[in-house]
Amino acid sequence: MFRKIYLPLLGLAIVASCSSPATSEENQEEIIDLSDDGSITAEPENDAPESYEKDGLKIYPFEGSPKFETAELTRNTPADDIKATNGKVAFDFGVTNYKLGAQTEGAGTNGLANSDKGQHIHLIVDNGPYSAHYDAKFEKEFEPGHHVAIAFLSRSFHESVKNGKSATIFQFTTGKDQPETTPVDLKSPMLFYSRPKGEYKGAGAQKILLDFYVANTELKPNGHSVIVTVNDKTKFEFDTWQPYLIEGLPMGENTINIKLVDAQGNLANSPMNDVTRTFTLSAE
Prior knowledge:
Layout: E1 31-33, E2 52-54, E3 57-61, E4 72-77, E5 82-84, E6 88-96, E7 120-125, E8 131-133, E9 137-141, E10 145-154, E11 167-174, E12 190-195, E13 199-201, E14 207-215, E15 225-230, E16 234-238, E17 244-247, E18 252-261, E19 274-282
Parallel strand pairs: 1-13, 5-11, 13-19
Antiparallel strand pairs: 2-3, 3-17, 4-6, 6-9, 7-8, 7-10, 10-11, 12-14, 14-17, 15-16, 15-18, 18-19
Protein backbone atom coordinates (compact mmCIF):
# COMPACT_ATOMS: atom_id res chain seq x y z
CA MET A 1 0.00 0.00 0.00
CA PHE A 2 1.11 3.53 -0.60
CA ARG A 3 1.60 6.35 1.91
CA LYS A 4 0.08 9.68 0.88
CA ILE A 5 0.71 13.35 1.66
CA TYR A 6 -2.33 15.64 1.19
CA LEU A 7 -2.88 19.36 1.47
CA PRO A 8 -6.37 20.97 1.32
CA LEU A 9 -7.22 24.01 -0.83
CA LEU A 10 -9.99 26.55 -0.33
CA GLY A 11 -11.61 24.21 2.12
CA LEU A 12 -11.42 21.44 -0.45
CA ALA A 13 -9.15 18.53 -0.17
CA ILE A 14 -9.50 18.37 -3.12
CA VAL A 15 -2.14 13.04 -17.32
CA ALA A 16 5.58 11.12 -26.21
CA SER A 17 4.51 12.18 -29.45
CA CYS A 18 0.95 12.95 -30.13
CA SER A 19 -2.04 11.63 -31.82
CA SER A 20 -3.06 12.47 -35.29
CA PRO A 21 -5.19 15.63 -35.46
CA ALA A 22 -8.84 15.26 -34.53
CA THR A 23 -11.90 17.19 -35.51
CA SER A 24 -12.47 19.25 -32.36
CA GLU A 25 -10.65 20.81 -29.45
CA GLU A 26 -12.35 18.51 -26.99
CA ASN A 27 -11.27 15.22 -28.53
CA GLN A 28 -8.16 16.10 -30.48
CA GLU A 29 -5.90 14.28 -28.08
CA GLU A 30 -7.92 11.07 -28.00
CA ILE A 31 -6.55 9.36 -31.14
CA ILE A 32 -3.00 8.56 -30.12
CA ASP A 33 -0.39 7.21 -32.52
CA LEU A 34 3.23 7.09 -31.44
CA SER A 35 4.32 4.58 -34.05
CA ASP A 36 6.55 7.13 -35.74
CA ASP A 37 8.39 8.22 -32.57
CA GLY A 38 8.77 5.17 -30.95
CA SER A 39 -7.00 18.22 -4.24
CA ILE A 40 -6.03 19.08 -4.59
CA THR A 41 -2.86 17.91 -2.95
CA ALA A 42 0.85 18.36 -3.11
CA GLU A 43 2.73 15.93 -5.33
CA PRO A 44 3.56 13.11 -2.89
CA GLU A 45 6.99 11.94 -2.02
CA ASN A 46 7.12 8.54 -3.65
CA ASP A 47 7.84 5.70 -1.29
CA ALA A 48 5.51 3.35 -3.15
CA PRO A 49 6.48 -0.14 -4.28
CA GLU A 50 8.16 -0.25 -7.66
CA SER A 51 5.20 -2.02 -9.21
CA TYR A 52 2.14 -4.18 -8.78
CA GLU A 53 1.86 -7.16 -11.14
CA LYS A 54 -1.20 -9.34 -11.58
CA ASP A 55 -2.88 -11.25 -14.44
CA GLY A 56 -0.19 -10.12 -16.88
CA LEU A 57 -0.68 -6.46 -15.97
CA LYS A 58 1.92 -4.21 -14.42
CA ILE A 59 1.02 -0.95 -12.68
CA TYR A 60 3.71 1.30 -11.23
CA PRO A 61 4.17 4.93 -10.20
CA PHE A 62 4.90 7.46 -12.94
CA GLU A 63 7.70 9.75 -11.79
CA GLY A 64 9.84 12.61 -13.02
CA SER A 65 7.28 15.13 -14.25
CA PRO A 66 7.85 18.84 -13.56
CA LYS A 67 6.19 19.67 -10.25
CA PHE A 68 4.65 23.07 -11.09
CA GLU A 69 4.52 23.81 -7.38
CA THR A 70 3.42 27.42 -7.86
CA ALA A 71 0.96 26.88 -10.72
CA GLU A 72 -2.53 28.03 -9.86
CA LEU A 73 -5.98 27.77 -11.41
CA THR A 74 -8.77 30.08 -10.25
CA ARG A 75 -12.34 30.39 -11.51
CA ASN A 76 -13.82 33.73 -12.52
CA THR A 77 -16.93 32.26 -14.16
CA PRO A 78 -19.19 30.45 -13.76
CA ALA A 79 -20.08 31.77 -10.35
CA ASP A 80 -21.07 29.32 -7.68
CA ASP A 81 -24.44 27.62 -8.20
CA ILE A 82 -25.38 29.54 -11.35
CA LYS A 83 -28.50 28.70 -13.38
CA ALA A 84 -27.97 28.87 -17.15
CA THR A 85 -31.44 28.68 -18.65
CA ASN A 86 -30.22 28.30 -22.25
CA GLY A 87 -27.84 25.44 -21.40
CA LYS A 88 -24.72 27.34 -22.45
CA VAL A 89 -22.13 28.14 -19.79
CA ALA A 90 -19.26 30.60 -20.12
CA PHE A 91 -16.01 29.56 -18.47
CA ASP A 92 -13.29 32.01 -17.54
CA PHE A 93 -10.31 30.76 -15.54
CA GLY A 94 -7.30 32.53 -14.14
CA VAL A 95 -4.01 30.72 -14.76
CA THR A 96 -0.89 31.74 -12.84
CA ASN A 97 2.68 30.43 -13.18
CA TYR A 98 1.58 27.96 -15.85
CA LYS A 99 1.58 28.39 -19.63
CA LEU A 100 -1.33 26.94 -21.52
CA GLY A 101 -0.23 25.68 -24.94
CA ALA A 102 3.37 24.97 -23.90
CA GLN A 103 4.90 21.52 -24.22
CA THR A 104 5.70 20.04 -20.81
CA GLU A 105 9.29 19.03 -20.20
CA GLY A 106 9.58 15.31 -20.93
CA ALA A 107 6.89 15.27 -23.60
CA GLY A 108 8.01 13.19 -26.54
CA THR A 109 10.56 11.24 -24.50
CA ASN A 110 8.51 9.70 -21.67
CA GLY A 111 6.57 7.36 -23.97
CA LEU A 112 3.17 8.81 -23.11
CA ALA A 113 0.44 10.11 -25.35
CA ASN A 114 0.97 13.84 -25.70
CA SER A 115 -1.13 16.70 -27.02
CA ASP A 116 0.61 18.62 -29.79
CA LYS A 117 -1.39 21.65 -28.64
CA GLY A 118 0.42 21.64 -25.30
CA GLN A 119 -0.60 22.16 -21.69
CA HIS A 120 -4.26 22.67 -21.03
CA ILE A 121 -7.20 22.56 -18.63
CA HIS A 122 -9.17 19.37 -18.05
CA LEU A 123 -12.85 20.07 -17.44
CA ILE A 124 -14.80 17.10 -16.04
CA VAL A 125 -18.56 17.41 -15.60
CA ASP A 126 -20.58 14.76 -13.74
CA ASN A 127 -17.55 12.45 -13.94
CA GLY A 128 -17.93 12.14 -17.69
CA PRO A 129 -14.95 12.17 -20.07
CA TYR A 130 -12.98 15.39 -19.73
CA SER A 131 -12.82 18.07 -22.37
CA ALA A 132 -9.40 19.65 -22.97
CA HIS A 133 -9.15 23.43 -23.23
CA TYR A 134 -6.07 25.33 -24.34
CA ASP A 135 -7.48 28.78 -23.64
CA ALA A 136 -8.64 30.01 -20.26
CA LYS A 137 -11.93 31.32 -21.70
CA PHE A 138 -14.46 29.16 -23.55
CA GLU A 139 -18.13 28.20 -23.71
CA LYS A 140 -19.81 24.80 -23.49
CA GLU A 141 -23.40 23.67 -23.81
CA PHE A 142 -24.89 21.10 -21.44
CA GLU A 143 -28.02 18.98 -21.19
CA PRO A 144 -30.64 20.32 -18.78
CA GLY A 145 -30.02 19.41 -15.16
CA HIS A 146 -27.81 19.96 -12.16
CA HIS A 147 -24.09 19.38 -12.74
CA VAL A 148 -20.98 18.93 -10.57
CA ALA A 149 -17.67 19.84 -12.19
CA ILE A 150 -13.95 19.99 -11.59
CA ALA A 151 -11.38 21.88 -13.64
CA PHE A 152 -7.65 21.32 -13.17
CA LEU A 153 -4.38 22.07 -14.88
CA SER A 154 -2.98 19.31 -17.07
CA ARG A 155 0.49 18.73 -18.43
CA SER A 156 0.68 18.31 -22.20
CA PHE A 157 0.80 14.52 -21.72
CA HIS A 158 -2.44 14.71 -19.70
CA GLU A 159 -1.07 14.21 -16.20
CA SER A 160 -2.92 16.43 -13.73
CA VAL A 161 -1.10 19.01 -11.63
CA LYS A 162 -1.66 18.20 -7.94
CA ASN A 163 -0.08 21.04 -5.99
CA GLY A 164 -2.88 22.30 -3.74
CA LYS A 165 -3.81 25.28 -5.94
CA SER A 166 -4.37 23.83 -9.40
CA ALA A 167 -8.06 22.83 -9.35
CA THR A 168 -11.53 24.17 -8.66
CA ILE A 169 -14.72 22.21 -7.92
CA PHE A 170 -18.12 23.79 -8.50
CA GLN A 171 -21.74 23.09 -9.47
CA PHE A 172 -24.30 24.67 -11.75
CA THR A 173 -27.75 24.09 -13.24
CA THR A 174 -28.73 24.34 -16.91
CA GLY A 175 -32.04 24.41 -18.76
CA LYS A 176 -35.35 26.17 -18.32
CA ASP A 177 -37.87 25.30 -15.64
CA GLN A 178 -35.56 22.96 -13.79
CA PRO A 179 -36.85 21.74 -10.40
CA GLU A 180 -35.17 23.02 -7.30
CA THR A 181 -32.15 20.84 -6.51
CA THR A 182 -30.46 20.39 -3.17
CA PRO A 183 -26.89 21.57 -3.68
CA VAL A 184 -24.20 18.91 -3.56
CA ASP A 185 -21.84 19.06 -0.60
CA LEU A 186 -18.67 20.02 -2.43
CA LYS A 187 -16.63 19.32 0.70
CA SER A 188 -17.47 15.61 0.70
CA PRO A 189 -14.81 13.11 -0.45
CA MET A 190 -14.82 12.81 -4.25
CA LEU A 191 -12.96 10.93 -6.96
CA PHE A 192 -12.79 12.14 -10.56
CA TYR A 193 -11.60 9.95 -13.45
CA SER A 194 -9.18 11.54 -15.92
CA ARG A 195 -7.05 9.00 -17.89
CA PRO A 196 -6.99 6.67 -19.83
CA LYS A 197 -9.33 8.05 -22.46
CA GLY A 198 -10.08 7.45 -26.13
CA GLU A 199 -8.01 5.41 -28.55
CA TYR A 200 -4.30 4.56 -28.35
CA LYS A 201 -2.36 3.32 -31.39
CA GLY A 202 1.03 1.85 -32.17
CA ALA A 203 3.77 2.41 -29.62
CA GLY A 204 1.37 4.62 -27.68
CA ALA A 205 -0.69 1.55 -26.80
CA GLN A 206 2.12 -0.09 -24.83
CA LYS A 207 2.27 2.20 -21.79
CA ILE A 208 -0.91 3.89 -20.60
CA LEU A 209 -1.25 6.70 -18.06
CA LEU A 210 -3.70 6.11 -15.19
CA ASP A 211 -4.57 9.41 -13.56
CA PHE A 212 -7.44 10.47 -11.31
CA TYR A 213 -8.25 13.42 -9.08
CA VAL A 214 -9.01 13.02 -5.37
CA ALA A 215 -10.92 15.71 -3.47
CA ASN A 216 -11.58 16.41 0.19
CA THR A 217 -9.80 13.41 1.64
CA GLU A 218 -6.39 11.89 2.13
CA LEU A 219 -5.60 8.48 0.71
CA LYS A 220 -3.81 6.52 3.41
CA PRO A 221 -3.66 3.10 5.06
CA ASN A 222 -6.71 2.50 7.24
CA GLY A 223 -8.44 5.43 5.55
CA HIS A 224 -9.78 6.20 2.11
CA SER A 225 -8.23 4.33 -0.81
CA VAL A 226 -8.89 3.95 -4.53
CA ILE A 227 -9.74 0.54 -5.97
CA VAL A 228 -8.92 0.18 -9.68
CA THR A 229 -10.52 -2.73 -11.55
CA VAL A 230 -9.18 -3.50 -15.04
CA ASN A 231 -11.41 -5.32 -17.52
CA ASP A 232 -13.87 -6.35 -14.81
CA LYS A 233 -11.51 -8.81 -13.15
CA THR A 234 -8.10 -7.52 -12.02
CA LYS A 235 -8.16 -5.30 -8.95
CA PHE A 236 -5.49 -3.02 -7.54
CA GLU A 237 -5.81 -0.86 -4.42
CA PHE A 238 -3.91 2.38 -3.95
CA ASP A 239 -3.56 4.53 -0.85
CA THR A 240 -1.20 7.04 -2.43
CA TRP A 241 -2.54 9.71 -4.78
CA GLN A 242 -0.16 9.97 -7.73
CA PRO A 243 -0.09 9.06 -11.43
CA TYR A 244 0.53 5.47 -12.49
CA LEU A 245 1.49 3.63 -15.67
CA ILE A 246 -0.18 0.45 -16.89
CA GLU A 247 1.57 -2.09 -19.10
CA GLY A 248 0.31 -5.41 -20.45
CA LEU A 249 -3.19 -4.36 -21.49
CA PRO A 250 -4.58 -6.41 -24.39
CA MET A 251 -5.24 -4.87 -27.78
CA GLY A 252 -8.86 -3.94 -28.38
CA GLU A 253 -11.43 -2.57 -26.00
CA ASN A 254 -10.49 -2.20 -22.33
CA THR A 255 -12.37 -0.91 -19.31
CA ILE A 256 -11.21 0.66 -16.08
CA ASN A 257 -13.38 1.22 -13.05
CA ILE A 258 -12.24 3.37 -10.14
CA LYS A 259 -13.93 3.56 -6.75
CA LEU A 260 -13.26 5.67 -3.68
CA VAL A 261 -13.76 3.48 -0.60
CA ASP A 262 -13.42 3.91 3.13
CA ALA A 263 -11.32 1.84 5.52
CA GLN A 264 -13.99 -0.87 5.57
CA GLY A 265 -14.11 -1.09 1.79
CA ASN A 266 -17.45 0.68 1.47
CA LEU A 267 -18.06 3.26 -1.23
CA ALA A 268 -17.45 6.79 0.00
CA ASN A 269 -20.67 8.58 0.83
CA SER A 270 -20.34 11.22 -1.86
CA PRO A 271 -21.72 12.02 -5.33
CA MET A 272 -18.48 11.24 -7.17
CA ASN A 273 -17.02 7.92 -6.06
CA ASP A 274 -17.53 5.24 -8.76
CA VAL A 275 -16.90 5.57 -12.49
CA THR A 276 -16.15 3.19 -15.38
CA ARG A 277 -14.50 4.21 -18.64
CA THR A 278 -13.85 2.30 -21.86
CA PHE A 279 -10.85 2.93 -24.13
CA THR A 280 -9.28 1.15 -27.09
CA LEU A 281 -5.77 -0.05 -27.92
CA SER A 282 -4.63 -1.04 -31.40
CA ALA A 283 -1.29 -2.19 -32.77
CA GLU A 284 -1.51 0.15 -35.77
